[in-house]
Specification:
By secondary structure, the protein is an alpha+beta fold. The chain contains four helices and seven strands, in the order βααβββαβαββ. A seven-stranded mixed sheet has the order 1-2-3-4-5-7-6, with helices on both faces. α1 runs antiparallel to α2.
Length: 178
Protein backbone atom coordinates (compact mmCIF):
# COMPACT_ATOMS: atom_id res chain seq x y z
CA UNK A 1 0.00 0.00 0.00
CA UNK A 2 1.30 3.44 -0.91
CA UNK A 3 0.14 6.63 0.85
CA UNK A 4 0.72 9.99 -0.81
CA UNK A 5 -0.76 13.48 -1.02
CA UNK A 6 -3.52 13.80 -3.60
CA UNK A 7 -2.95 15.82 -6.76
CA UNK A 8 -5.20 17.39 -9.41
CA UNK A 9 -4.82 14.18 -11.41
CA UNK A 10 -6.73 12.31 -8.68
CA UNK A 11 -9.96 14.34 -8.95
CA UNK A 12 -12.00 11.79 -10.89
CA UNK A 13 -10.77 8.73 -8.96
CA UNK A 14 -11.47 10.37 -5.60
CA UNK A 15 -14.91 11.60 -6.72
CA UNK A 16 -15.82 8.10 -7.97
CA UNK A 17 -14.65 6.46 -4.75
CA UNK A 18 -16.45 9.07 -2.65
CA UNK A 19 -19.69 8.49 -4.58
CA UNK A 20 -19.34 4.70 -4.35
CA UNK A 21 -18.69 4.90 -0.62
CA UNK A 22 -21.78 7.04 -0.05
CA UNK A 23 -23.89 4.76 -2.25
CA UNK A 24 -22.69 1.78 -0.26
CA UNK A 25 -22.92 3.22 3.25
CA UNK A 26 -25.69 5.83 3.17
CA UNK A 27 -28.70 4.04 1.63
CA UNK A 28 -31.69 4.91 3.77
CA UNK A 29 -29.90 7.98 5.17
CA UNK A 30 -29.76 9.99 1.94
CA UNK A 31 -32.35 9.98 -0.82
CA UNK A 32 -32.21 7.18 -3.39
CA UNK A 33 -32.50 9.75 -6.18
CA UNK A 34 -29.47 11.65 -4.94
CA UNK A 35 -27.40 8.48 -4.45
CA UNK A 36 -28.25 7.08 -7.89
CA UNK A 37 -28.32 10.25 -10.00
CA UNK A 38 -26.60 13.18 -8.33
CA UNK A 39 -23.91 11.97 -5.94
CA UNK A 40 -21.11 11.52 -8.49
CA UNK A 41 -21.47 14.88 -10.31
CA UNK A 42 -21.87 16.67 -6.97
CA UNK A 43 -18.80 14.94 -5.48
CA UNK A 44 -16.84 15.61 -8.70
CA UNK A 45 -17.56 19.33 -8.30
CA UNK A 46 -16.38 19.20 -4.67
CA UNK A 47 -13.12 17.47 -5.56
CA UNK A 48 -12.41 19.67 -8.57
CA UNK A 49 -12.67 22.67 -6.27
CA UNK A 50 -10.64 21.11 -3.48
CA UNK A 51 -7.80 19.80 -5.61
CA UNK A 52 -7.62 22.43 -8.33
CA UNK A 53 -7.99 25.38 -5.94
CA UNK A 54 -6.29 23.85 -2.93
CA UNK A 55 -6.14 25.84 0.29
CA UNK A 56 -2.99 25.85 2.44
CA UNK A 57 -4.88 24.52 5.47
CA UNK A 58 -6.18 21.49 3.51
CA UNK A 59 -4.61 18.03 3.44
CA UNK A 60 -5.80 15.23 1.15
CA UNK A 61 -4.03 11.89 1.26
CA UNK A 62 -4.76 8.81 -0.83
CA UNK A 63 -4.07 5.13 -0.34
CA UNK A 64 -3.03 3.35 -3.52
CA UNK A 65 -2.91 -0.37 -4.16
CA UNK A 66 -1.12 -1.14 -7.43
CA UNK A 67 -1.65 2.48 -8.55
CA UNK A 68 -5.41 2.36 -7.91
CA UNK A 69 -6.85 4.69 -5.27
CA UNK A 70 -8.61 2.52 -2.69
CA UNK A 71 -8.99 5.10 0.07
CA UNK A 72 -8.59 8.76 0.90
CA UNK A 73 -8.83 11.23 3.75
CA UNK A 74 -9.33 14.99 3.69
CA UNK A 75 -8.64 17.27 6.66
CA UNK A 76 -8.74 20.99 7.27
CA UNK A 77 -6.40 22.46 9.86
CA UNK A 78 -7.65 24.24 12.97
CA UNK A 79 -11.22 24.86 11.83
CA UNK A 80 -12.62 25.03 15.35
CA UNK A 81 -10.96 26.81 18.26
CA UNK A 82 -11.84 24.15 20.84
CA UNK A 83 -11.30 20.99 18.77
CA UNK A 84 -8.69 21.95 16.18
CA UNK A 85 -8.53 20.27 12.79
CA UNK A 86 -11.56 18.81 11.03
CA UNK A 87 -11.38 15.40 9.39
CA UNK A 88 -13.97 16.04 6.71
CA UNK A 89 -13.67 12.79 4.76
CA UNK A 90 -12.39 9.27 5.27
CA UNK A 91 -13.52 6.73 2.68
CA UNK A 92 -12.27 3.27 1.79
CA UNK A 93 -13.36 1.22 -1.21
CA UNK A 94 -15.84 -1.42 0.06
CA UNK A 95 -13.61 -4.25 -1.24
CA UNK A 96 -10.58 -2.82 0.61
CA UNK A 97 -12.14 -2.39 4.06
CA UNK A 98 -10.83 -4.13 7.19
CA UNK A 99 -7.25 -4.14 5.93
CA UNK A 100 -5.89 -1.31 8.10
CA UNK A 101 -6.19 1.35 5.38
CA UNK A 102 -8.55 3.55 7.41
CA UNK A 103 -6.25 3.47 10.43
CA UNK A 104 -3.22 4.26 8.26
CA UNK A 105 -5.03 7.21 6.64
CA UNK A 106 -6.05 8.49 10.08
CA UNK A 107 -2.40 8.26 11.13
CA UNK A 108 -1.34 10.19 8.02
CA UNK A 109 -3.78 12.94 8.99
CA UNK A 110 -2.56 12.86 12.61
CA UNK A 111 1.06 13.28 11.47
CA UNK A 112 0.04 16.23 9.26
CA UNK A 113 -1.74 17.88 12.19
CA UNK A 114 1.24 17.31 14.51
CA UNK A 115 3.66 18.71 11.92
CA UNK A 116 1.59 21.80 11.09
CA UNK A 117 -0.49 22.89 14.08
CA UNK A 118 0.21 23.69 17.71
CA UNK A 119 -3.12 22.20 18.70
CA UNK A 120 -2.92 18.45 18.23
CA UNK A 121 -6.68 18.14 18.44
CA UNK A 122 -9.08 16.89 15.81
CA UNK A 123 -12.80 16.41 15.34
CA UNK A 124 -15.14 14.91 12.79
CA UNK A 125 -18.82 14.24 12.21
CA UNK A 126 -20.23 10.84 11.31
CA UNK A 127 -23.80 9.79 10.65
CA UNK A 128 -25.24 8.33 13.85
CA UNK A 129 -26.73 5.44 11.86
CA UNK A 130 -23.29 4.53 10.49
CA UNK A 131 -22.54 2.21 13.43
CA UNK A 132 -19.47 0.62 11.85
CA UNK A 133 -17.80 4.01 11.38
CA UNK A 134 -18.74 5.06 14.94
CA UNK A 135 -17.12 1.92 16.34
CA UNK A 136 -14.01 2.48 14.17
CA UNK A 137 -13.55 6.04 15.46
CA UNK A 138 -14.12 4.95 19.06
CA UNK A 139 -11.43 2.25 18.68
CA UNK A 140 -9.10 4.98 17.46
CA UNK A 141 -9.72 6.96 20.64
CA UNK A 142 -12.44 9.32 19.44
CA UNK A 143 -14.80 10.51 22.16
CA UNK A 144 -18.43 11.32 21.43
CA UNK A 145 -18.91 15.04 22.05
CA UNK A 146 -22.34 16.01 20.70
CA UNK A 147 -25.12 14.97 18.33
CA UNK A 148 -26.67 17.33 15.81
CA UNK A 149 -28.47 17.25 12.49
CA UNK A 150 -26.28 17.91 9.47
CA UNK A 151 -27.69 19.32 6.23
CA UNK A 152 -26.65 17.15 3.29
CA UNK A 153 -26.39 18.02 -0.44
CA UNK A 154 -29.70 16.28 -1.17
CA UNK A 155 -31.51 18.44 1.40
CA UNK A 156 -31.78 15.67 4.01
CA UNK A 157 -31.07 16.45 7.66
CA UNK A 158 -29.09 13.54 9.08
CA UNK A 159 -28.42 12.97 12.80
CA UNK A 160 -24.66 13.05 13.18
CA UNK A 161 -22.23 12.49 16.04
CA UNK A 162 -19.23 14.69 16.62
CA UNK A 163 -16.15 12.73 17.70
CA UNK A 164 -13.17 14.53 19.18
CA UNK A 165 -9.55 13.73 19.95
CA UNK A 166 -7.75 15.75 22.63
CA UNK A 167 -4.44 14.59 21.14
CA UNK A 168 -4.20 12.95 17.73
CA UNK A 169 -0.91 11.32 18.66
CA UNK A 170 -2.93 8.96 20.88
CA UNK A 171 -4.06 7.04 17.80
CA UNK A 172 -0.45 6.39 16.82
CA UNK A 173 0.51 4.13 19.71
CA UNK A 174 -2.18 1.54 20.36
CA UNK A 175 -1.19 -1.78 18.72
CA UNK A 176 -4.71 -3.19 19.29
CA UNK A 177 -6.15 -0.86 16.65
CA UNK A 178 -6.52 -2.65 13.35
Amino acid sequence: MNYRPATELDVDAIAKLHALSWQNAYRGMLSDWYLSQEVYPERLNVWETRLKQSKPHQFVVVAEDEQEIVGFACAFGSTEKRWGALLDNLHIHPAARRKGIGKALMQQVAMWIIDNYDSHQMHLFVFAANKGACLFYERLGGKENETKEMAMPDGELVPSIKYVWERVDSMMVDPRIK
